[in-house]
Specification:
Elements lengths: L11 E6 L5 E7 L6 E7 L7 H12 L3 E5 L15 H12 L3 H17 L3 E10 L1 H12 L4 E5 L18 E6 L7 H10 L6 E6 L16 H19 L5 H14 L3 H6 L1 E9 L4 E4 L1 H12 L8 E9 L3 E11 L17 E13 L2 E9 L1 H7 L14 H7 L21
Parallel strand pairs: 3-4, 3-5, 5-6, 6-7, 7-8, 9-14
Antiparallel strand pairs: 1-2, 2-4, 9-10, 11-12, 12-13, 13-14
């Protein structure tokens, strides 16, 4: 996952008033349009470091106005630590002297300030990591927050009595190998809230504490991506904003295949997108690389009779899955699908699946899958004899499921008449 974002207000701090007469800073990030629902991000034990800023920028690109309050200000303002051994020592020192009750008061002050901001449209949610994961839980119990997300919250099991005060939906993420939120603690939490239909619990096998923190050895990209989509699902459902992903994808494809306008195509995407055609590993990462790919190897490198025939479309919170037939005559070299193969003049129909990820109202990445062996068979450069490979029949059967099955299975006849 690329954590570089653009189109948001970066490195911006504002001053907030505490309930007891003091003041503290909060890092603020806003979406490009300047307004949106509110999100309070709650820090790990490392202060408002580069990770917390990057996540604030990331959620701003999703359409949220984000504040990250400095919750260590009563001990030392402006704490920003990395993940070296020395920084870990300092971080645990702050953690040992941390006043949770005062911190929740500061979170509440942040929420009140956020609700008064002209740029905050609608509701406000909270999301926290590690220490912030527990604070997200306590924020749900002690404030009027509209929803909360807890990533591997530490010592939540010691505050289960406060759960009865929570009236908003929550999502909890737990790591199987987490020593700070171990399985026995997770089981206590699950048992306590087993009847809460508005609480969602997710376990991530084989990963450790801080699996979502890029830059740390514990970071696990697949788990981080899954957790992110699940978190975003709650935020979208409770806070919004809701985007028409189907329309956004249709417009992107229109500029790729109909107008063949590279500039318009890129405008449908985030500042640093990527595309990966899985079978051939073609595409590009980042604005410059992907623009070059689109301009010289994709948008004007598709046969004139190229057609996309829709089969099905599934739309999630931040992803769209398109199943289609990709049809064309191989009358030109197609760099992205058949690189280095001279035109054969053969007609091809191939099932193709696009998995498209969005950030806010822009495409972030595309993962495109198809059966390359079937393409090679159809253009006559691969002999399917003796191989478990089919040609255009795969496209035909996708449309008509009554066509024969199992014709590539030599052993299929052996089960004829056997009990099932």
């Amino acid at each position: 996952m690329n954590w570089e974002v653009a189109g948001v207000t970066k490195n911006s701090f504002i001053q907030l008033e505490s309930s007891d007469g003091g003041s503290f800073k909060a890092y603020m990030a806003k979406p490009e349009k300047g307004s949106g629902p509110g999100l309070v991000l709650l820090q790990e034990i490392f202060g408002i470091n580069e990770y917390m800023k990057s996540m604030a920028d990331h959620f701003a690109e999703e359409g949220y106005v984000v504040l990250v309050p400095d919750l260590f200000w009563r001990m030392e303002p402006d704490v920003s630590l990395g993940y070296s051994e020395e920084d870990f020592g300092k971080a645990f020192g702050f953690y040992r002297n941390f006043d949770v009750d005062k911190a929740i008061e500061d979170v509440n002050s942040t929420i009140r300030h956020m609700r008064s901001m002209d740029s905050v449209a609608g509701r406000v949610g909270a999301l926290g990591y590690c220490l912030g994961g527990k604070l997200a839980y306590l924020t749900a119990a002690r404030t009027d927050i509209d929803c909360a997300v807890s990533y591997y919250g530490v010592a939540i099991e010691d505050a289960l009595n406060e759960g009865a005060n929570i009236s908003c939906p929550m999502v909890f993420h737990f790591a199987e190998l987490d020593k700070f939120a171990p399985p026995e603690a997770v089981e206590k939490i699950r048992t306590e809230f087993k009847d809460r239909n508005d609480f969602e619990f997710y376990d991530y096998p084989g990963v450790d504490h801080a699996f979502a923190t890029h830059g740390r050895d514990s970071y696990d990209k697949p788990s981080a991506m899954m957790a992110y989509s699940r978190s975003l699902s709650l935020l979208r459902k409770v806070l919004g904003p809701i985007y028409d992903l189907s329309h956004l994808w249709d417009m992107h494809c229109h500029h790729e295949f109909a107008t063949r306008d590279v500039h318009a195509t890129m405008k449908t995407m985030v500042a640093e997108p990527y595309v990966n055609h899985i079978p051939t590993m073609t595409g590009g990462v980042g604005q410059k690389h992907l623009s070059r790919f689109y301009k010289h190897h994709f948008v004007d490198a598709n046969p004139a009779d190229t057609r996309l025939v829709p089969i099905s479309r599934t739309i999630g919170t931040d992803r769209l899955v398109d199943e289609m037939l990709f049809c064309f005559t191989h009358d030109m070299e197609i760099d992205w699908m058949l690189p280095g193969i001279a035109p054969t003049g053969k007609y091809v129909e191939i099932p193709l699946v696009a998995i498209v990820n969005f950030r806010g109202d822009k495409l972030y990445h595309e993962h495109i899958y198809w059966d390359q062996a079937s393409v090679l068979v159809q253009i006559g450069v691969l002999d399917s004899k003796g191989l478990p490979v089919a040609g255009r029949e795969t496209a035909a059967k996708l449309v008509d499921e009554t066509l024969p099955s199992n014709e590539l299975m030599a052993n299929w006849a052996s089960s004829e008449g056997k009990a099932v």
